[in-house]
Structures are given as structure tokens and as C-alpha cells.
From TrEMBL, chains A, B, C, D, E, F, G, H, I, J:
<dbReference type="GO" id="GO:0003677">
    <property type="term" value="F:DNA binding"/>
</dbReference>
<feature type="active site">
    <location>
        <position position="93"/>
    </location>
</feature>
<dbReference type="Pfam" id="PF21291">
    <property type="entry name" value="CYNS_N"/>
</dbReference>
<keyword id="KW-0456">Lyase</keyword>
<protein>
    <recommendedName>
        <fullName>Cyanate hydratase</fullName>
        <ecNumber>4.2.1.104</ecNumber>
    </recommendedName>
</protein>
<feature type="active site">
    <location>
        <position position="90"/>
    </location>
</feature>
<dbReference type="InterPro" id="IPR008076">
    <property type="entry name" value="Cyanase"/>
</dbReference>
<feature type="active site">
    <location>
        <position position="116"/>
    </location>
</feature>
<feature type="domain" description="Cyanate lyase C-terminal">
    <location>
        <begin position="77"/>
        <end position="149"/>
    </location>
</feature>
<dbReference type="InterPro" id="IPR048564">
    <property type="entry name" value="CYNS_N"/>
</dbReference>
<dbReference type="InterPro" id="IPR003712">
    <property type="entry name" value="Cyanate_lyase_C"/>
</dbReference>
<dbReference type="InterPro" id="IPR010982">
    <property type="entry name" value="Lambda_DNA-bd_dom_sf"/>
</dbReference>
<dbReference type="Pfam" id="PF02560">
    <property type="entry name" value="Cyanate_lyase"/>
</dbReference>
<comment type="function">
    <text>Catalyzes the reaction of cyanate with bicarbonate to produce ammonia and carbon dioxide.</text>
</comment>
<comment type="similarity">
    <text>Belongs to the cyanase family.</text>
</comment>
<dbReference type="InterPro" id="IPR036581">
    <property type="entry name" value="Cyanate_lyase_C_sf"/>
</dbReference>
<dbReference type="GO" id="GO:0008824">
    <property type="term" value="F:cyanate hydratase activity"/>
</dbReference>
């Protein structure tokens, strides 16, 4: 019996590595973006029954896993508060170095409020560049204003 | 005598609030993006002498501040490892929830390496949307591969 | 010259204590709830110019403070990640003990998503009870669903 | 042999996911609120023998589990001091942003003391709203005054 | 102008040291226990106006301090989560080594619930002993049971 | 083969829960206080061979456990530096809120030194009270003075 | 089935210890530096298929491991933020004591920017010295300047 | 009166920025390496009287500072355990990613022991490279073996 | 007016540096060991009135300081839980590496209990050695056994 | 197959407890001090092949363990940064309370440098005392001076 969503995530990763499956293939099978698909497979999003069945098929998951993939997971994908992996740390560094800048500019443009991390999408793509290709990431989040009451 | 870059940052913020200066005005005066300009004014980037003089003029800074603005600062703009401000926390949350996804997708596309946070730019803008305007942020960083040796 | 919003908060607190001003009086003067008013005076919300002028009047604040009260503050009102004050700790304890319950029930009712802490209101009142009066707190936050993309 | 209450909690969760049981059904079977029921099933409350037997039946728990459900558990349902799950974090954020406000207003109304987290109840419900349904949460805790001695 | 209760505490401590005032004298002047009195003077309890005036007299406090002593303080008297002072650490050690024991025995005797730290009193006294005098401390707190709802 | 004292503690707890053994029964069998007995069974004290045999009998422990119960354990019974369980947290809160008071009063009475947590005893009992029974705890520790040398 | 790269690393270490394999032998078999080779075997670098097959042969790894060695690992080789092992701590100490010096001198020579930890190589060798041999370590990293935009 | 070495460090930095002094000039004046000189000026090393007088002259330090520069400082030049500045973080990252590698290779070559951080020198220089100049850093530390006794 | 013992410590350190006073001279003036004397001057021990007067004389302390030196201080002389200064860190390392050894051997010799850090003395001296002088430190603490009750 | 040195340490501890082996017996069999011997058995030192074989014999270790005992271990014997065990905590307390004293006195006697924790020995013995036996510990470490370069 599967006891946690983390077990399902480990099964998915182990199969992905063994069978060399690409996230973009999984995304295509689901008809969704590779960003949402990957996050969902890594235990950060809840799937519909149909999505869970597709994913279970691709990754040879046991029957039980289909129910776990539909349950809302306890989110958080990193093992430490300050990430140790260099790729992920660079993102944390951006938040640390540019955090006050991001706050100032969003507040200057929109007033007091936040950029939603829920009504949110992420898009990662390659940007060809003669001086070395770049990673281009677009984050789009609804602005949510604080209100008086 | 000014003893640290933080003092200069506090002077800039106090004047900006008092005189209601917009970061985009400062950026226009420097002929640079509002993102770099704000980061530099908030003590995260080193300015050229000319830039420092423009900024000193705008914010009524004392003579000493011009030298400090040219010195390379000790970077890091947030008071705690996990940010408490909701706007900035949402970014930390994105790193936490989507961190493993970002890593998987960049590694899938580019192989082992990172997205540079140095050869990097940030662009924040309003995206009109009938269901509520969105904050659209574009991050662009050069991909830097790990190499064997 | 005032250098930070925290200075304004300290001034407000010192005057409030000295002159024994009640938050509900301030709220009445602003025509808003005592919850929003107190949060704003304690440096967690940005005020409009008119609100800032009313508050400055009540608390004998210097001219400069009016601009600071309108600036969007860096939020976070507690000195430590785990609060030491018993009253506030009880709330942290509720999050700790009931956190998984709250998540399960909101997710059971609404699906995957969050209860907004931005489009949010708080209402604190006395509930008379023969066995000892109770504090009754109503939190109301818009449900924000995660979406596929 | 079952070695800890956490094992029982994991069994309950695994069965709940597999058999798609709703907390409100469990609450109905116990004749208690869904809030207390969920907290108890998630290892935060001690049950009576009869309650434990009902729960064991619903979740196919082994004999041993009935004794564990009656033992007073070591409480605390979150894996980190600052929660990483966005839904639960929003609650932590409310404590962080509104903590000083909550303290001021309860103390203004009642004097020095706390709102009990023991003689306490929680009620979570959907509040229909044309602009998007809201989560409405009512917390009710007995006020406990500090006394001189 | 006094800006925080901590300032008042520092004034009290400085005068106490300089004038060699004993806490038991202050307690006698207030007609209360030395435990409550000391805690109140060290910024952990709110005083009545009359008490504050007595204390202000004893410690030569300025006018402003009388209002601060009546305000409910942000409690917490130690600079670090794990105390460094050996005397106070020993108490933390007792909580660490005997914590599970205390929980088991209180729960065995009373069922699920807590010993109140609010409806609580503390009594510290010397216990003569031929093998070396002992510190005898009596803690008395109301038992508060968790209830179903 | 048993690999750690923690394993023995888990076996004791599992049997205690399953067979509904009371700590006071174990204490009676050992002829010692329930406080020392519970602490010893929970892995905080070393037992004599005879005590270990009595305990092994009561809790159906394997042969190996008898040696482990006699070994001096690595003490510390709580999983986090700041305890999450509400009952134990209240004790931590007492140390936090009253810590400076306890230090002042012991030092005022005895001079510089500590209250021993080794030459120490703990006594927990029910105190009947018409307004609700109270938990009465007596701590007694030898005073140990710092000396010059 | 192998579930994580850490498992592969543990297998490699266990075989290396049992068969007394030297890292320099592995490096020679791969035709690469001992520094990169060791880091890769310890789970910090991704290998090519051919490299993975050589390593699998040397360390008797199961079939599955070959795929895991080619996957980009989650990097970070130390169990705590401040390392406890004395050899590794000395390096942390160098960063702590000389960190501000390193920053000043690199910034003085190159301007604002960093020394890459990605386009980076490490070389560790013995330096004979009559007063006791020395460890000589050469770090070489590309300088990456911050740019305006 | 100067109260700490940190004050002297701040004075040195403020003058260095204001007068645009280069560390290599200071090193030349002392006849020592720029690495040791910078570390000493930044409060990490004790100077001789003569060195202190040279430094005081260069940086216009008051009389008192000369004594402080000769006192052995409390070392540690970074404000947080995990550095936030990107340049210094890259060094921490090297320790994190390559830490186990460094340990393996030094132990393989020398046996159990450490590379001294005391009998240690550091040399930072520019390495011209057509693909972009590199920072080349040489660390040299005496190997100190653990011994039996 | 002096507000804390830390201020007195800073005054002592500043004068000691300025006038180049040696701790052994202070110890000789007090007729006590240099270890106790230094600890007392650095704010870790309470002095008698006469001792305080001698110390005040040596370090030109103001009148107020004499009372502060007699008050029992809040002990703890290091700014961080894990010390950053290499000399002090080596001691922390000894506790970390040899901690379990120290515990095993004291427990093997004495049974369950501790080595007192209160009824304790410290003696630091130079041990001439042809291979380089050594620091020889003798710690002597009374053994305090845990007792049954 | 043994996967880590910690496994070997656990086997040694389990056998030591079961067979009631004394560390001094092991030390005698090795012809070394009980301090080094215990540290080595607890996974803090690397053994020679011959030593490993003696230890394996005494503790009935499997073949594999002999190789692991010769490998240089990742050192650090305590589970938390601030130790919870009272005996080991007292040592941490000594570092905390006397840390600045130890630093001052070693630096006063020897100049800037450290006491080695590598070229180091530890000796723990019983010191008979009519007022209660004492633990006498001698630490001896080579003084290592910082040098200019």
C-alpha cells in the first residue's frame, strides 16, 4: 500500500530515469504545458482522474497511485529552507538580491498588493543567443490588491 | 561621514518617500531599465561615477555618498532567510513549489548547468487582463553548463 | 528626517500609550474597521493621503510621517519566526496543531487552492459566555484555485 | 505491532485516499464536527474508546490502532517551523502580518491575557460570493486573563 | 519620550543595580508576591495605574513610564530560543529531559489537555538542607482539558 | 538485535498503549516515584539491573533490552528545540516569560549560581480546586554556587 | 529498483571501501581529473553514458545505476549548513574569515561580478615542504561581470 | 573612545571608499601580500605596532585605533552563516558541492587529517583567457595529521 | 548612566586595549586565578564589592560600574550558537568530535551523571615542547550523579 | 553489505551494551589511550588495519566492517548543533561562558593563533576529593600561530 505522495513521486522519478522519459512527452500526452505537468508529477499539483490515469500508464504506477495523484498534496519541493542545488539557489539568489526591487516596482505600478503564486503560470524556454543561449522564463501572476475594510 | 552602503540606501528611501520620486523617473534620468536602476539604488549594484552623480542629485545625497554608490556592495536585500513580506514571499514560494520543476526542465533542455543570476536581466510589466490585470515578469539568464575537466 | 516605517510605528505606539488612545477611536475617525486600522497603524498596510493625515493628527506625527504612511511597507510584524508572546503563540499553535486539518477541509470543500490572505478580512469580537467570555474571530478569505495551464 | 501514532495517521490517510472517504462522512459517523474529527484522525486529539472503534472500522485499522487512537498524542502536525505548503503558509502569514494587530485588539478589549487554544473551536465553511466564493473561518476561544498573585 | 517597554525595563534594572534595591522590597511595597512583581518589572506583566505609580516611585522612573507599565507588553524575556545563561538553561534542560515525562503524567492523571501558563502561579523559596540548601519551586496551573465539539 | 535505546523506548510505549499500563503501576513495582520511573522508561535515566529486569517483565521486552536499560542514555526527549506539543510548550513558555524572573529571584536569595537539574527531583500532583482542578508541580534542586578560584 | 542518486552514491562508497579503490584509479579509467571524477561519483555531476558504464563496471553497480549516473543530480554534498567534519570545516572557516577579503580583492581587480562556480575547476595536490608537506589547491573560475541593462 | 575592532574596520572602509585607496597600495606600504593585508584591515588579523601605525596613517585613523589593530580580533567576517552576497556564496557553494570531494582526495593523498586554515596562505590573481579572464586562487595550507595517542 | 553589564565589559575591553593591560596583572591585583578574573571582567561572573573596586580602579570605570560588576550577569560570551572565531571554534569542534567519547568515558568511570560546569575550574598554561609549544588546559569539575527518587 | 561508518558504530555500541565491554578493555587490547580508542570506535578516527582487526574481533563485526574502520570518517558525533545531553551540554556551556576568556588568555600568552584540535590529546580521569570526586580533564593541543605573508 502506498503511504504518501512522496512515494509516488519517487516511483515516477525512478521510472523516468530508467526509461529516459522526457517531461515534454508527458506534457504532450496530457495536452498541458510542460511546466504544470512536471510540477504535478513531482507532487506539487493535484491531477484529475483522467490525468492521473495517463500518468500512471506512462510511469507504470500501481493502481493505488492513481488515487494519490488526485489528492491535494502537501506542497514544497525542496529539502532545505535555503536550497543547496546551484541551479535552484540562483533563483533564491534572485529573490534575495532583487527582492526589494521587485517589491518596489510592483508596488509602484499597482499599489499595495501581491503577484499571485496561485493564479500563476510559468513558462521556460530556450532563447538562442550568439554569445551563448539563454534561459528565458516568463512568470505571469494576477495582481491581487490589499483592500481596506 | 557615511559608514556603510546601507546608510546611503536609507537616505535614498527616505528622500524618495518624502519627495514622492518614482523609480521609473530615476531610470529615465540614467537611461537604463527601471529594474537595474532600482536594484542599484537599493544597494545591490555598483554604479559608475556619472550614474552616482545623477542619483546623488536626484536624492539630495551628500558628497560622500557618490563614492559609496560606486563601491561594490555586499549584496542581499532581505532581512530574513525566509522573507516575511507577502509579495516577496510569493516569489520564495514559487522557488519552493516550482524549484524542482524549474531544475528538471532547464536540465532537460540544456543538460547539467545553471541559469546565470549574473549575466541576467529582469523585466517587470503590467499585463492587462479583463479578469484582473496581471504582473508579467521576464527573467533572462545565460545558460552556463558544467564541464568536465 | 524619518528613515523607516518602523520609526513611524514606534512614534504611534509611544503616543498611543502616553495619551491612552484606543484603536477603536482611531478606526472611528477613519471610518474603517478596527482590524484594518490597527494593522495599518502598526506598519502593515499602506494608507491613502487622507487617512495618513487623520492618523498623523491623532498621534501628533511630524510632517514626514504622512508620506511614510502612504508608502507600501515591508510587512511582517513579529520579531521571531516562532512568536514568543503567549497570545500570539496561541495562534501559531492553532496553525501548527490544526494546520493539516484546515488544509484537508478547505481542499475537501473547494479542491486544490488556497484561502487568500490578501483578499481577506479579519473581525475580532467579544462573545459573552456564562462560563467566561470568549474571543470570537472571523476570518474571511477568497478561495483561489490552482489552475492547469 | 504499531509503534507510534504517526503510523496510525499514515494508515488513515492511505485508506482515505484509496477509498476516497470524506472527512465529513467520518464526522457524521462520530456525531461531531468535521474540524475536531479531522484533527483527531490526523493525530492531534485523543479519542474515546467508542470513537476509536468507529474510526478503526471506517479506515480498516488493525486491532492495535484502537488503543493508539485513545492515547494522548504528541501534537504538532507540520514538518517545519515555517510551513511550506501555500495554503497553510497563508495562515502563518496572517499570524505574521496581523499578529501585533490581533494582540492589540484582544488586549484592548479584554486586558492582559490570551485567547485559549485549548478551550477552543474552529469552524470552516464556504461563503458564497458572486465575486468568487470565500472561505469563512470562525475561531472561538475562551479569554484567559493573567492574574496578579 | 520613551519608545518601548524594553526601555522601561532597562531603566528599572539600571536603578535597581545602582541603588541595590531588592525585588522582595518592591513586592512588599506592592503587596504582591515577589514572583509576579519581578516578572512585571521585567516587562512581562501589565500593571494597574496604582502599581505603576509605586514602581515608578521606587525606581525614579519618568512620567511616561507610568503609562508604559500599564500597557500589555510583548512578552518573552530571553534573547535566544535556547537560553545561554546556565541558570535559565537548567530549566530548559528540565523541559527537554523531563518534557515527555511531564506530558505522560499529566495526561495519565487528567486526560488530554494542558497545565495553564496563564492561570498560573510560581513560588520560589529556599529549602534548608544539611547537604546544601535547595531551591524549591512550586508551579501551580489550572488544568485545561481539550474538548470535543 | 536492538541498536539503540530509542528502540527500547518505542517498545515500551507500544506495549504500554496496547496493554493500557499506567506509569504509577510501574513506579509501584519499582518502589520509586512515578516521575523518575517514567523518565527512566522514556530513555532519560539509567536503571540498575534489577530495575531493568522488572521493567522488561512488565513491558515484555526482549533479553537485549535489559542491557540497554542499564546503559547511560543520550538524554533529550523532545524532537525540536522549541517544543510543538501544547502541554510541553506551556513549560517552555514559562521558561521564556518567567526566565529572567527566576534568575533574578534565585540570585537575589542565593547569590551567583544555579539550581541543579541533576541533584533534582520533580513531583507532579493534582490539586483539587472548586474553580477547576490544578496541576501542582514541585521542583527541588540543590543550589550550586559559582566559586572564585 | 534504485530510487535516488543517493543510493547510487552509497553503493559506490561501500564498494570503494570494501575493494579499496582509489579515486585516482577511477579518474585514470575515465581519462579525466580526479577532482571532477570524485565529485561525479559522489553524486554532484552528471556523467555521459560511456562514463557511467565505466563507473558501473568499476563499482559493480546494477544496470539501473547507469541511467541514474547520467541524470542531473540535486547537488549539495554536506549534511548540515555549517559542516561538522574538521577538514571540510576548515574550508568553511576560510570562507568565513577571508570572505570579505576575497570579495574586496576580486572586486578591486575585476569590478562588480563573481568568480563562477560552474565554469570552474579545482586542482588538489601535495606540495613537499621540509617543515611538513602542504596541501596546495588551485581554484580557477571564469570572472562573470554584472552588467547594466 | 573606540569600543570595538568593528568600529576600526568601519573607519577603514569609509576612508578607503572616500579616498579611493586600493588594497594593493596598502599591501605595498606594508611590504606584505594584498591578501593578508586586506584580511588584517578588515579585522581578521592582528598587526604589529609598526604595521598598525602605517595603516593608521593611510586611513587617517585616530590614536586609539593603533592599539585596537594590534589586539587579536574576534574573527568572522560575514553577517550570516550562509552568505547572501553572490560572490562569497559561490565559495560557500564550492564547499557545499565539492566538500566531500575535497575531503576524499586530501584523505586519499595524506591520510586522516586536515589542511590547516592557520598555517595557510591565499593568493588571488587574474588569469588571462581568450574566452574571458578567469580568477585563479591558490590556497596553500600545511597538512596536519590526526595522531593516535 | 550605565544600562547593562555589556557596557561595562566594553569599557573594560576598550581600556585594556588602550592601556595594554594584561589579564594576569589584573588577576594578581585581585589575588585570584587569571581564568576566573578574565571571565569576571568579560561579564561572566559576579564580583564582590572589593573586587569590583579594584577592577574599577584598574580600568578607570565610572562609579556606576562598581554596582554592575557585583550584579549576577546574564551569562554567555559568544555572539553565535556555533562560534565563528577559529580559536573558539576548535573548542566547539572538540565538543562535537569528542562529545560522545567524553560522555562514554565519564559515564564508564562514574556512572550516570555530569561533570559540573559550576563547581568547576579552568587552568590554561604553556607547555614547552621542542616540536612547538602546546597549550595545556586542565578542566576540573565535580562529578554530580543522577539519583533515583 | 555495510553502507556507512554509522552502521559500524551502531554495531559496536549494540555489542558493547549486550556484552558489557568496557572502553578501557578495548584500549588495553589496542595498546592506546582510552580516549583515542573510544573516539575511534565511535566513528571519529581512522584505524590501521591491525587495529581494525582487533576491534572487529572484540565486537564480533562482520568482514566488511574492517575496511570501513580504516576509512577516514565524516566526523561529528552529536545530533544537534547545541547538544541536548546534559553531560555534553556542560562542555558546550563551558565553551559558551568561558569562550572569550579562553581566547583572551591563549592570545595573551601566545599571540594570535589557535590551539590545535588535530595535534591534540585528551585525558579524562577521576580526581579523588573528600567533598566529592571530581572529573579532571587535560586537553593538550599544539599552538599554531597565524603568520603574515
Amino acid at each position: 500500500m502506498i503511504n504518501s505522495r512522496e512515494e509516488v513521486t519517487r516511483m515516477i522519478q525512478a521510472t523516468r530515469i530508467r526509461k529516459d522519459i522526457r517531461w515534454s512527452q508527458v506534457a504532450a500526452a496530457l495536452g498541458l504545458s510542460k511546466e504544470w505537468t512536471t510540477a504535478a508529477c513531482l507532487g506539487q499539483m493535484a491531477m484529475s482522474k483522467q490525468q492521473a490515469m495517463v500518468v500512471a500508464e506512462i510511469f507504470d504506477l500501481p493502481e493505488d497511485a492513481i488515487a494519490w495523484l488526485q489528492a491535494v498534496p502537501y506542497k514544497g519541493s525542496l529539502p532545505t529552507a535555503v536550497p543547496t542545488d546551484p541551479l535552484i539557489y540562483r533563483w533564491y539568489e534572485v529573490v534575495n538580491v532583487y527582492g526589494s526591487t521587485i517589491k518596489e516596482l510592483i508596488n509602484e505600478e499597482f499599489g499595495d498588493g501581491i503577484m499571485s503564486a496561485i493564479d500563476f503560470s510559468l513558462d521556460i524556454e530556450r532563447e538562442a543567443d550568439p554569445k551563448g543561449d539563454r534561459v528565458r522564463v516568463v512568470l505571469s501572476g494576477k495582481f491581487l490588491p490589499y483592500k481596506e475594510y
